[in-house]
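TICKET #2291
ISSUE: user wants both folds in one file
ATTACHMENT 1:
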Amino acid sequence: MIAAYIDEIIMFCAGLWMTSVGFGYLPLPGHSANRPLVRHFKWMGPLPLVIAIVLAAAS
């Protein structure tokens, strides 16, 4: 049970970081902001956030 909460916290933090980098609030260390992957962080970042919230509500 504790492991599930830890996984959800890690997923939530990763989602926050991806969303912040995707929208330009945080720089991606060592890379320019115009990388193709960074543009996808705008929609890929909120996915782990939603998944972590749903899993937390279900447990």
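ATTACHMENT 2:
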Amino acid sequence: MDNENEKYCKCKGRPCITSGYEDDWGYWDVCVKCGKRIEDGYHYYNHYDGEDHEDIDIW
């Protein structure tokens, strides 16, 4: 069972972060020192599909 308190980095003075833990919608910032996710470090991908949906939203 996952412990919520152990999912995120608790390191003091993080020397560096990288990206990781990707899914279909985005990715997390990850601490290089401990390898855990940075709380509030989730970044969403821009899922633009190349089509203009502006007209549909207006009507």
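RESOLUTION: both attachments delivered.
EXTRA DETAIL ON ATTACHMENT 2: The chain has a mean pLDDT of 76.
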